[in-house]
Amino acid sequence: xxxxxxxxxxxTPLDKVENFHGNQLIYLDWEKHRMFCSPICVPxxxxxxxxxxxxxxxxxxYGEHPDWQHIxxxxxxxxxxxxxxxxxxxxxxxDQGIHHKSVLRFYQPGLDGLEGTGG
Length: 119
What we know:
Layout: E1 24-30, E2 40-44, H1 51-62, E3 77-80, E4 83-85, E5 102-107
Parallel strand pairs: 1-5
Antiparallel strand pairs: 1-2, 3-4, 3-5
């Protein structure tokens, strides 16, 4: 099945950064925890410190998972847009290269989901 765009069609993306009132969208994904089937998308101010991800956003998003109580941020491995990344909790998202629609993935070795199933 093919999907074609009608000739002459010029769409306007509605998820441009200027449509989020000073925020940018970032995607977060807790690897090996597919109980959450896809990355979550949250609006955050680009000047917010990275610590907001660990202290506020992820606990609200993933805190119900039984592995959450074992998260140790000092052991977590991060990627930013598929590249290894070492965040500075005090620096802003913007100053660390996190931009509109960036994808942040995190994984802690040894936390592999429900009974090691990745769920």
